Amino acid sequence: MIARGIMLGPDQPVILHLLDITLAAEALNVVKMELLDAAFSLLKEVHVTTDIIEACKDVNIAIMLGGFSRKEGMERKDMMSKNVPIYKEQASALEKHAASDCKVLVVANPANTNALILKEFSPSIPKKNITCLTRLDHNRALSQIAERIKVYVTDVKNVIIWGNHSSTQYPDANHATITTTNGERPVKELVTNDHWLKNEFINTVQQCGTAIIKAQKASSALFAASAACMRD
Ligand SMILES: NC(=O)C1=CN([C@@H]2O[C@H](COP(=O)(O)OP(=O)(O)OC[C@H]3O[C@@H](n4cnc5c(N)ncnc54)[C@H](O)[C@@H]3O)[C@@H](O)[C@H]2O)C=CC1
Ligand SMILES: O=C([O-])CC(=O)C(=O)O
């Protein structure tokens, strides 16, 4: 998606630095081969490495995906002991080697905590440049409402996700609206079942990640990549 211009736009050439651990080096090379085979016109160079310093050198944008992923029966916070040390090391490498105005998107869980670690251990990167991926929760909330009212997802607006990317988040549709042929109408009015909005809707959005892991024993890459690359 990045190489096709979906994240940075159709006129922005990109050089990708791909980092993984030594055990995954061969798989990483395959990713490079696939990217080159695709001959994306915006993709100018692909560097694969298992060296964090090489990976961070002069990067303008860092998308932090690496680490342990959640398995069935785990909460995202259960990965803290494994992923926090990784994020300390990666933050220090970004601090020393990335471009000074580098923008950082933390995807790996627990995403909010990892973003906080990054902020603490890379003090020269402006705080406002560091964010973590909760857009996925927002998208999930939009889709749940669209399905319920039978409208297009693009017609749903002003849903808010409060809190962390975790099962304690609060998806809030109190100010959400639907674009109709008669103008904007409140979601609360169109979802006639208030009990659904206060219970099942919230619970479903909070538990979407868990449901995917239960169903396919891994989280899916597509929805996270799509949320990370959205430009609206
Ligand atoms: N914030 C969000 O909305 C979402 C977050 N996630 C999180 O994103 C992360 C990645 O998810 P998946 O791609 O499904 O997991 P995955 O397990 O398929 O991939 C993780 C990759 O990180 C690599 N890795 C492990 N330690 C590393 C290190 N020290 N340095 C560099 N790379 C390292 C692994 O070798 C593996 O290739 C997980 O933490 C997952 O929980 C996933 C989906 C949505
Ligand atoms: O649940 C997970 O571990 C992956 C993730 O963050 C999500 O799908 O929301």
TrEMBL record:
| Database matches in Pfam families | Ldh_1_C, Ldh_1_N
Q: What class of enzyme is it?
A: oxidoreductase
Q: Which reaction does it catalyse?
A: (S)-malate + NAD(+) = oxaloacetate + NADH + H(+)
Biological processes annotated in GO: malate metabolic process; tricarboxylic acid cycle
Keyword Transport attributed:
no
- Where the record annotates domain Lactate/malate dehydrogenase N-terminal, the positions are 16-130
Residue span, Lactate/malate dehydrogenase C-terminal domain: 134-228
* Documented EC number(s): 1.1.1.37
Q: Which Gene3D superfamilies match?
A: Lactate dehydrogenase/glycoside hydrolase, family 4, C-terminal, NAD(P)-binding Rossmann-like Domain
Q: Which InterPro entries match?
A: Lactate/malate_DH_C, Lactate/malate_DH_N, Lactate_DH/Glyco_Ohase_4_C, Malate_DH_AS, Malate_DH_type2, NAD(P)-bd_dom_sf
Recall the GO molecular function terms of this protein's record. L-malate dehydrogenase (NAD+) activity
**UniProtKB keywords:** NAD, Oxidoreductase, Tricarboxylic acid cycle
Under PANTHER family, the record lists: MALATE DEHYDROGENASE (PTHR23382)
The entry assigns this protein to a family as follows:
Belongs to the LDH/MDH superfamily. MDH type 2 family.
Stated name of the protein: Malate dehydrogenase
